[in-house]
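Quick one, T. Sequence first:
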Amino acid sequence: MTAHFRLNTITPIRAPINLESEDLAGFDFQARAPLPLTGDSFDQLFSAIGEPSALNWSYGYGSLENDLCPRFFRPLFKRDIRFADGTNEQEIINAFCTKWKLTLACAELYIFDDTLALLRLDFERPPGENPFDLVTREQQSSFDAAVSILASALYHELIYPNFVKAKPKLEAINNDDIRFRKQADFDVFNDIHFDDQEHKNERHVLWTGRTILVSETNLPATEKAALLDWAACPKDGELKDIGLGKAHIGSGNCLVITEGDLNSAATEWFRAQSLCQFYNAILSTYNAILKRILLQIGALEKSGLRKGRRANALLQSMTKRLDHLSFVSMEFGESRRGAQNHRRQILDTTIDAWELDKVADGALEMAEFARKRLERLESRRRSKQNRSIELILTAIGGVAVVDLFLSLAEVSHTEAIRQDGVPGVLDAFAALPPDGWIWGAIAIVLLVTVSVYRGRR
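Structure tokens:
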């Protein structure tokens, strides 16, 4: 008898939603706007993608089925994706299912803040079909690639065009509950655009995580070995206990072997994995943005400090990015502490396997490194500016000194000063002709100028 089998895939993608995240965490918003957002203002958004749908779980303490998850890590929208007959996306799904002998179990879109969403596609094998030929060594790489290609194709054919259509509607929503910022106002995640329906930016699809969930009942040893090999798990003893079963969590492929109901296990798995995938996607997006900023900083350094306004704007944006990254890390920590039941074990195991704490520390270090480089650049620019101002003031002062000496020399040679009979400074000026004092003033000015210049080097 063949063991039951389910394939779960999660693909982080970019979306045109960017809220004031710190406001999203506020108490007033939590009290007014339950998530995911529903109602006349929101149900028509992304209507071409799918039908509005409630979550299959709830948040807040009350039972082990609930997690105390902060608002930032809850989906703003959920859509059950529909594939209309005769459309390109329907043909793409049918071709994939036919080739790999799979049936689509669910297709869902979870849209979060910070320009990110999660595309969930789950598949099953029809009764009587052996699912484990997918993970043989001959099929592994082509199957994994086909899953990633499928998610990318669905995004570009169905989801992205509807994001473009929904963007003006999003930007028009501005009420007491929530305000969607315009794309021009994106300050942290300003690396994406949803303006051209024909534009297909590969950076909008980050990756696809694949998980096979299988029932341990009637699982032959040879098929279990094939699954372990597909998940890159060296041996059976390295499977981790995650409460609902045993699992190996890899960077791309994950394996869950459970004794319970696979549908319930898949829901538990997704609830925990969605937090890690969303957080990991934020960190990955941050790293990509920061690397581009470092290139801009290098260009500014080569420009000879001529673009001071641009450097100052980058410094201000880096401060915002660093603050927001710290906020996201704190919210993820709260989500981790608020997870209950098996989801807490899945979260902890995934965080350790993906080393998410180190990834977050690396992103913070890179942001801090970029900010310090900008601060040094701004400091050098200000130093150069201050030196120029000092030289200008020195020159102005020099002219004043020359004028003073000239005036004193002129006054000292008047008849009244010569005959006043009182020794003084003007008598000293009378000892030399005016040209001599002018040259003396010029010498003093040059000496001061050279001293100021050498002191600022």
